[in-house]
């Protein structure tokens, strides 16, 4: 595939971006809506937070399994199927009356997200050369900024005006629309995946990826970053609502500013290619070491909260674009497996970090959460700084 493939298949790339936006919105949308979900099922907010846990665990489990088994399937077909399952899960969630049933459907949505995200990231790699990979990845992962900037506040206001069930029903229909666009979009000629039939190759493919030192380092750094990111983000909505006495709508609007910063970076990701993907990732992690420690102080005033979230989006968008581009090249012939493991590492990080930061938030406050996650980011920067050396076998 030539370097301009992302431009020669615009509907496919935009539909993939929309897929990332819809499934990616879930974990961001749940945070400001947790008080409403808790009230709906008459459970404590802490118990309602289990919805995030089961969603993340299901995604972390599903991503490598689907990534391995779907390595020999067309990526567009995998994305569309995942979107349909995702939509059906949230439509059904709007009808249940028991919290246990909601958790089961949340897990189903998480598993579907674990199908969609790796395939969408791998598609970015298929449509570009490594020299242009940052730009291609930026195009598709800008769906995350759309999720935060547009989808999350829309859902927050829908939940405030109507209820959270209606908000998630709207998300489900958006996912179905993206699935239709994926199916009808012109696609590049399919290049058969190398190696043995999928079932026979599962174990060998996984061992091949995990045996690569560069791949292991990329996955570890991504786990640290995303755990630290969500450790701070998970309680951002609650902190804003508590400090300022806001409802879900205003909190969602302020959080959406993060998406502005993310959008600026991902839509101009060519500079990540120019500056260097490794250097961009290391610099972003080092900057997060400062930003995450400062953010809990900045949320005390609306104006500083907005400024802090904008800068956070710029920095995190730089890291996410760089690490995804690096992941697509570590074991290039098994790109789908590597991106599946990247998504897995993301939600393993969320699952591992969130209980710790929840304890810190409850016992020591939001500032302690920010400092702990800032230190983790600095550790990630030190690890990523050695990626080139490791990749060349030193």
Characteristics of this structure?
globular, 394 residues, Growth Hormone, Chain: A, single chain, 0% strand, mainly alpha
Please work out how many helical segments DSSP would assign: 18
Structural class: mainly alpha
**Helix amount:** over 70%
Could you give the distance between the termini? 32 Å
Total beta-strand segments:
0
* Anisotropy-based shape: globular
Q: Enter the CATH topology name.
A: Growth Hormone, Chain: A
CATH superfamily: MFS general substrate transporter like domains
Largest beta-sheet details: none
Strand content: under 5%
Average pLDDT, rounded to a whole number, is 82
**Overall CATH architecture:** Up-down Bundle
Poorly predicted segments: 196-200, 389-394
The gyration radius over C-alpha positions equals 20 Å
Number of domains: 1
Broad CATH class: Mainly Alpha
| Helix/strand order, N-terminal first | HHHHHHHHHHHHHHHHHH
Describe the 3D structure:
The chain has helices spanning 5-8, 10-41, 45-48, 50-69, 75-93, 99-126, 133-161, 164-184, 198-211, 213-233, 236-244, 248-266, 270-275, 277-298, 302-330, 335-364, 366-384, 387-391. The chain contains 18 helices and no strands. With 394 residues, the chain is an all-alpha fold. The model is unreliable at 196-200 and 389-394 (pLDDT under 50). 84% of the residues lie in helices and 0% in strands. The two termini are 32 Å apart. The chain has one domain: MFS general substrate transporter like domains (Growth Hormone, Chain: A), CATH 1.20.1250.20. Helix 4 (50-69) packs antiparallel against helix 16 (335-364).
């Amino acid at each position: 595939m030539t370097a301009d493939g992302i431009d020669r298949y615009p509907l496919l790339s935009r539909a993939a971006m929309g897929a990332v936006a819809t499934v990616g919105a879930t974990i961001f949308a749940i945070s400001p809506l947790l008080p409403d979900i808790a009230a709906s099922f008459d459970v404590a907010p802490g118990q309602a937070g289990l919805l995030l846990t089961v969603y993340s665990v299901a995604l972390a489990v599903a991503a490598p399994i689907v990534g391995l088994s779907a390595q020999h399937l067309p990526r567009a077909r995998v994305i569309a199927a995942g979107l349909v399952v995702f939509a059906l899960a949230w439509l059904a969630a709007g009808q249940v009356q028991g919290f246990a049933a909601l958790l089961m459907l949340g897990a189903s949505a998480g598993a579907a997200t674990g199908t969609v995200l790796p395939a969408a990231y791998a598609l970015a790699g298929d449509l570009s050369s490594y020299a242009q990979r940052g730009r291609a990845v930026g195009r598709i992962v800008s769906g995350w900024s759309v999720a935060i900037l547009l989808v999350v506040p829309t859902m927050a206001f829908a939940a405030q005006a109507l209820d959270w069930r209606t908000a998630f029903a709207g998300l489900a229909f958006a996912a179905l629309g993206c699935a239709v666009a994926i199916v009808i979009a012109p696609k590049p000629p399919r290049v058969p995946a190398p190696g043995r039939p999928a079932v026979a190759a599962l174990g060998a493919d996984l061992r091949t990826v995990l045996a690569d030192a560069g791949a292991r380092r990329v996955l570890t750094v991504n786990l640290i970053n995303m755990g630290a990111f969500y450790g701070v983000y998970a309680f951002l909505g609650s902190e804003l609502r508590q400090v300022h006495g806001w409802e879900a709508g205003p909190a969602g609007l302020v959080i959406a500013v993060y998406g502005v910063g993310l959008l600026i970076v991902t839509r101009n990701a060519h500079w990540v290619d120019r500056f260097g993907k490794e250097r961009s990732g290391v610099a972003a992690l080092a900057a997060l070491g400062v930003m995450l420690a400062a953010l809990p102080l900045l949320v005390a005033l609306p104006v500083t909260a907005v400024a802090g979230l904008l800068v956070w989006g710029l920095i995190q968008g730089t890291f996410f674009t760089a690490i995804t581009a690096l992941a697509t090249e570590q074991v290039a012939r098994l790109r789908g497996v590597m991106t599946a493991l990247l998504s897995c590492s993301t939600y393993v990080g969320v699952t591992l970090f969130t209980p710790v930061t929840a304890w810190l938030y409850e016992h020591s406050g939001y500032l302690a959460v920010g400092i702990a996650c800032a230190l983790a980011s600095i550790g990630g920067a030190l690890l990523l700084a050695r990626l080139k050396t490791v990749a060349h076998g030193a």
